[in-house]
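User: I'll paste a sequence; please echo it back and then give the predicted structure.

Assistant: Echoing your sequence first, then the prediction.
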Amino acid sequence: MPQARYLRTTLSKVLSDRKMAFIGGPRQVGKTTLALGFLGPRANAKHPAYFNWDDPRAAARLRRVELPASEPVLVFDEIHKYARWRGLVKGIYDVEKSERQIVVTGSARLDYYRKGGDSLVGRYRYFRLHPFSLRELGPRASAADLAALLRFGGFPEPLFRQDAAEHRIWQRDRLSRVLREDLRDLEHVREVSLVEQLVDLLPQRVGSPLSVANLAGDLQVDHKTVERWLQILENLYVCFRAAPLGFSRVRAVKKERKLYLWDWSAVPEPCPRFENLVACQLLKYCHFVEDTQGHRMELRFLRDTNRREVDFVVLRDERPLFAVECKVSGKQSDPALAYFAERVGVPRFYQTHLGDEHHERGRVTVIPFARLCQELELP
C-alpha cells in the first residue's frame, strides 16, 4: 500500500499557512486515515486530539470545547452532522489558530451542508479525496494492478484485501450506512426504501444518457422527486453526472446527463465499468486542479443527434482541454473521434483502452489507459 495519499503534501502546506484543511469524499475512501496521519505515524481513533462526532463522548467534549493540551494538530471527523458546526469550528479556529492546526473531515460535502453559523470564508481550504487511481498505486503500477482496480474498485479496504466475498459484504455495508445513516442524519428523507431501489437501478444505467423520466416511472414517483434524490446521492458521494457539451458546428444533444458511480466496481458489465473507471480518474483530475489551482474544471461529454459520441471532454475555465473515448480494445479508432476533431475546438482527442496499441492520426491518439494517465499527469 502507498505510504501517503496524493493530497498529503498539499494539505501539509495549507496547514503550515495556518488555514484549516477540510477533506470531503465518500465513506471509507481514507479520509480519517489521511487525517490521523497528521497526528503522528501511529495515531489511531483513540488519540486525544481526534474528535469523531459519531462518538457521543467526543461530541460532548467538543461542544464544551475541552481540547487536549499541548497537541499541535486537532482532527474533527464528521462534525458537519452538528447543526451549529460552522460556528463551533470558527470559534475554535479563531482562538487556537496561532497554536494549532485543524483538519476537518466529512463523508458528505462540507461545502454543501452549511447549516448556519458565522462564515468560514478565508479560514479554510476544501479538498475532495478520491479513491485510489492507477498512478497513485505507484510509478511501477502493473497490468495486474489495473485489473485489481477494475475488479475491486479504488476504495482502500477492498482494493488491498482483494477478496471477492469480503468485497461484496463491504459494498453492501457501505451503501447501507450511507442510506441508513447519512441520508437520515443529513436529508431527513422518509422514503429510504425507494431511494434504495433507485440506487439498485443505477449500475445498469452507467455510461448512457440518464432518463430521469424512466426512473420516475420505474419507481412510480414524480420526476422532481427522482431528480431531488439523485442530487442527494451526488451530495453523499454515491454517484455523479456529466452534462452534454454543445458546439455550434454539430447538432449536439443538450439535455440528458450521463451518470457514473464513485464505486465503479458496482457496475456489472466490463465496458461500462471501464468507462466508469475513466470517468472517476478524470473527475479526480478535475477536482485536484480546482482544489489546488483554483481553475474552474468541468467533466462533460459530446453526443450529436445522429448518436455519434465522445465519452468525455475536460474543460478548464470553460475551454476544452482534451476529449477521451473509452474502448476495451484499441485496434481501431472510433470514426466519431475524427468526425468531431474536424468540427469542434478540442485540441486533442484520445481513445483509451486496456490493450497495448498506441498510435496517432492527426488530432486523434489511440493510447493504453496507463500511458494516458502518465501523459496527462493524472493524479
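The mean pLDDT is 92. The first helix runs from residue 8 to 16.
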